[in-house]
Amino acid sequence: MTTTESRPTGRKPAQLVDMSWDPITRIIGNLGIYTKIDFANREVAECHSTSSLFRGYSVFMKGKDPRDAGFITSRICGICGDNHTTCSNYAQQMAYGIKPPPMAEHITNLGEAAEYMFDHTIFQDNLVFVDFCEAMVKATNPTLLARAERTDAPRGEIHGFRTIADIMKAFNPFEGEVYKEALRVSRVTREMFCLMEGRHVHPSTLYPGGVGTMPQPSVFTDYLSRLMHIIDFIKKAVAMNDDVFDFFYEALPGYEEVGRRRILLGCWGAWQDPAVVDYRYASMNEWGKAMYVTPGVIVDGKLVTNNLIDINLNMRIMLGSSYYDDWVNEQPFVTHDPLGNPVDMRHPWNQTTVPVPQKREFDGNYSWVMSPRWYHQETDKHLALDTGGGPLARLWSTALNGLVDTRYVKAVDGKVRIQLPKGESLPETTLEWSIPKWSNTLERDRARPYFVAYAAAMALQFLEESMELVRAGETKVFQDFEVPDEAIGCGFHEAVRGVLSHHLVIKDKKIANYHPYPPTPWNASPRDIYGTPGPYEDAVQGQPIFEENGPDDFKGVDIMRTVRSFDPCLPCGVHMYMGKGKTLDVVHSPTYGASHG
Fold first, then answer.
1. Residue 575 labelled as part of a binding site
2. What pLDDT, in 10s, does the model give residues 361-392?
3. What's the CATH code of the domain at 118?
4. Residue 490, annotated as binding a ligand
5. Is 77 marked as binding a ligand?
């Protein structure tokens, strides 16, 4: 039972081979993909996504001082820890009933914009594009590489490469021109981040109530000077990605089916508008719609809701095929939200994590990741939403909503228009992302450089507004508060790779319950109690295989492209205490292509 739309039939007798990739390389954490490959029909017949380690932050958060939540939860991940700190602070600010000063919001927004630029660049250019580089394509699809050598790059006047193969060569690991340039850009964007949030990736200057960064003009000009040095790289990256992905569609008819699943996207919104946000639950619908990335649940290409209150209340954490005991017969932590709406026992506010280690059985339980679902009341279905790797859902939701209308980014007519200023060599440029036909591997990857451009454009606005506040003398960056005896809060944000929410319950001034829900549990979830596969499973299962290798030397590049298109990251889904006296040895191998010559 899948959520993916049916695909054409006309089949040969199956030639099934069990193949697994565990752990998946080029990510953090223990993600395993177990498949049955039908080589006769050149497709993936079956797929299971597993996580082999326990996730336990919700267990040891209990009893902690809630003011420490941001610092603790940033350690969930060594990649997007700042996203957790930011989201935790949002939840705490709701619980404490406070609103940071406008300058603090701009500084937070600038830090998060730098993080999007940093993380998406290093992931796309140094990790994802290894699957599309010359060395990999030569090993898996030599016929395709030969065609790429004969195919002119349509946007060569922007990025400077003559053929598609030239672009592929530029992404060869450790040697390629773009591969090395992306590392430099990642260093610069990391410096931009540290100017605002103090330390990467666990911020030292973000707190509930505001920030500790001093809003001196030099801080903003240092950020701006670095941004302008990379603005042309961003323009080139969009052009290179468009050329390569358009080539794949043209050269490999049917490649749109790789990683395609039903359009079920979730976006929780990013970058607060200081003029609108007050962090009150009662007004969450209003300030949610004012975010500079608009929240939304998208089903079959249609916007179901952009109301954060509805998004929050319809979250359901299901066990399905995961290693946990149920909690639904326990006493709830929260029976009603602040508006009097009933809160389901499977909502994160009421979740209790009860791990039950056991043997992996694919016809039973096989993963430490639970199965978050979004309950669609209209159809009475629990939907396995995915994040599109983050950027696809963000751009799709923003485009459908049509609410973002800023100096540099506008959502209009199902498109997102991004204006970037003149750089060191390229003129002022307007990029336009349009809603694609499919939610598939190539479109998840294509959206990523567009969102880097989106983040750069929004950073320009945040810088301008920050300097306006400096000139007006409005430099306050912190709001005092008291921790209440009892309260609940929820924060909604976008981690780099997609939806992020933190759900907090305070009793006796301590944390009574705390559950962060990053993108990984949504994307990496196993089959739920209805048999519905999680997004990784659903996107891989049934996809065609275009790799030219047979079973004996099969590398699974099409499968890896699909999984990595979601920007998989397992730290937020996997944590385990190994026990006294037991040593875990971890050996890291070089990225594919280090010695391909």
1. yes
2. 999 999 999 999 999 999 999 999 999 999 99
3. 1.10.645.10
4. no
5. yes
